[in-house]
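Possible regression after last week's pipeline update?

I re-ran a chain I had predicted before the update to compare outputs. Posting the input and the new output here so someone can diff against the archived version. Not blocking, just want to make sure nothing changed silently.
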Amino acid sequence: MSATTLVLVLLILSVIAYRFGRTRSIAVVGGRRGQRDLHSLPTYYGLLTALWCGLPALLVVGLWTAAQDSVITRLVLAEMPPAVQTLPEDEVSLILNDVRNVVAGNMQLSQVSADAQRAATAYLRLEHTSRMALAVVALAAAMLGGVFVWRRIAPQLRARNSVEKIFEWLLLGCSTIAIFTTIGILLSVLFESILFFGHVPVWDFIFGLEWSPQTAIRADQVGSSGAFGAVPLFAGTLLISAIAMAVAVPIGLFSAIYLAEYAHRKFRATAKPLLEILAGIPTVVYGFFAALTVGPLLRSAGESMGLDVASESALAAGLVMGVMIIPFVSSLSDDMITAVPQSMRDGSYALGGTPSETIRRVVLPAALPGIVGGVLLAISRAIGETMIVVMAAGLSANLTANPLAAVTTVTVQIVTLLVGDQEFDSPKTLAAFALGLVLFLVTLGLNIIALHVVRKYREQYE
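New output (post-update):
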């Protein structure tokens, strides 16, 4: 039985356990007329039975699946001949790689060596045994958990409290996973960045004016010494993000003001969903639009005015990216403006304020924390965008403030450095982690600024 099938069976058992638990809670008080004698609603008794039936079994499935491959690999290595076990580690890794390809169906058994064939046969046998044992243990855990709670159902059982406590622990576990995932990502990027800075000085990376990450593979190779000055990448990222925000912030904010304060209810009900459709368009579509329509249009317009516009320019990428980001600014700003209490508007009107004065002096300052949060989210979205920049701005790391020239961004270079077969001990590949660390620090700085602004204006208007 595969893991997916087992999970579906456990979900079905949990649904059945819910029905049994709910029915028993009604039966122990003599029918529906006696439900007042129950501490909790019958639904909570059913939920408690279902949770005890499903959660322990799912936990067993998760832990078993996570450890299964490593355990089976060790058992397979233990069964291999001593001559194979004494091979160098890289040769053993090659044999295990062939075994995994055979197990996954990517290779035929006859295409690998005799040692790999024996190991693959043993792996498949142990995997089959493991799946059968997992099914037995998981189903037994589900049955025992469900029966345990089902037999304890009584009028005095605090089922609601138990269910809420279980969900509280589940939420705590999810938040803990999120925190540790963030810490793990940060540490992995930090460790690789430290290795990179062992090859390239920090100051040369941060303040260097030339970016050419090509390094020599052989000792006799010339012309690929590598230059890791990231200033051109930072400049390109800021230039494209600034153009995008110059488009998105005014249009998005003014759209939100109109929809929240001036638009008729029917127009708002139609216009807001249409505006938010822009957020659902894939970025590759925006990239095609920028490369095939906006870029050539800007080039032809520039030639008619005597300007030298590159086929791939920061202006084309920034304009299209700004259009993509409009829904982020508009939707969040609209929600924040709508959340301002009507009493504040009424007080302004009572003092003789016009609608425009009320919006400018009352509504916008009160909604400013949320608007700033939406703008910073849009900035983070612009900084992290890759597809539009690749297709519309190019890969040239030019240090320029000219929006008509081709530039590149940090995220594009990260993708470029990690595409294909790379050696993760070379400065070229490790540079991607250093760039990722810089992006993390920039995002952290934006969040700190947002918290400061929100705290300042929240204290003023509370």
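Follow-up from reviewer: compared with the archived run. The chain has two domains: 3-157, 227-461. Marking as no regression found.
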